[in-house]
Specification:
5-stranded antiparallel beta sheet; 4 helices; 5 strands; elongated
Length: 161
């Protein structure tokens, strides 16, 4: 599984929108490699979600939550300005520190593996049809992919009946 963490800073409002920003960043420096605006549609509060990935995630494995929070907020300030320094709440998920997942949210295959062998994950074997996020042709590794694979298998089984 990939070394990944997710950090969500909650604010009173999605203040970045007033500055004409959409909350999305992709960076090759710092702790946070990408961010997304996770605020609700009614903007009743602001939520910036960022991923901590790969070497940065592993580097912070032994860091305290306070240390990770400080590093994350430093990046959020770089991306969105000083208002990002003071969230009302902060949520941290570090999958690679979990005993049974040891990473997430998706496994990483070497280049060419899925394009060459991916269809084999979906091929029925006798009466057995394979479903699960790893068998999805879209959003593999995510809940959306799991739902899509379930729908695909239901159609396969119905066609056989």
């Amino acid at each position: 599984m990939a070394s990944v963490g997710k950090a969500i800073a909650i604010y009173d409002t999605p203040f970045w929108r007033a500055d004409g920003l959409n909350g999305q960043v992709v960076s090759d420096t710092g702790v946070i490699s990408s961010t997304f605006d996770n605020s609700p549609p009614d903007a009743s509060y602001g939520a910036l979600m960022g991923f901590i990935e790969a070497d940065e995630a592993r580097r912070l494995d032994a860091a305290s939550e306070a240390e990770v929070r400080a590093a994350v907020l430093k990046d959020y300030v770089t991306y969105f300005g000083e208002k990002a320094a003071s969230p009302t709440s902060f949520v941290l998920q570090r999958w690679n520190n979990e005993a049974y997942t040891r990473g997430g949210p998706v496994s990483i295959a070497a280049p060419g593996v899925l394009t060459q062998y991916g269809p084999a994950l979906r091929e029925p074997v006798g009466g057995i049809h394979w479903a699960g996020t790893e068998t999805s042709t879209y959003w593999m590794g995510f809940m959306d992919g799991a739902v899509r694979s379930g729908e695909r298998v239901a159609k396969e089984v119905l066609a056989v009946l």
